[in-house]
Amino acid sequence: MELSTRHCIVEVSDRLALNDKQAEYLKVRRWIKEAGSDGVTSSTLKKMVNGEFDLRRLNDITQQLLESKQIEQRFASTKTGGRPSHRWFAL
């Protein structure tokens, strides 16, 4: 029972915001966290935003998350030798 209660509290704290900007921040952090060990690409994040807020705001949020060490960015080369992709991972 205690584990279930703790899980509910964590879920609520990941979604409870005092204002719209904080809600956007928490949403982006949750998307990256939910991507798990595969991480999420920038293009996927942009698609997830889907017009809810502008892409400049998305860049600001990922920068804030980086600076607060809640996420990290990793670069990976592609199999075809093209431009390296980068993915966001929750810490």
Main β-sheet, in a few words? 3 strands, antiparallel
Characterize the overall form. globular
What is the strand tally?
3
**Mean pLDDT score, rounded?**
84
Description:
By secondary structure, the chain is an alpha+beta fold. It has four helices and three strands; from the N terminus they run ααβααββ. Strands 1-3-2 form a three-stranded antiparallel sheet. α2 packs across α4 (55-67). The chain is globular, with a radius of gyration of 15 Å. The two termini are 27 Å apart.
Main attributes of the structure:
91 residues; alpha+beta; 4 helices; 53% helix; globular
Describe the structure concisely.
By secondary structure, this protein is an alpha+beta fold. The protein is built from 4 helices and 3 strands, in the order H-H-E-H-H-E-E. A 3-stranded antiparallel sheet has the order 1-3-2.
Give the SSE map:
Blueprint: H1 2-13, H2 20-34, E1 40-41, H3 42-49, H4 55-67, E2 71-76, E3 85-90
Antiparallel strand pairs: 1-3, 2-3
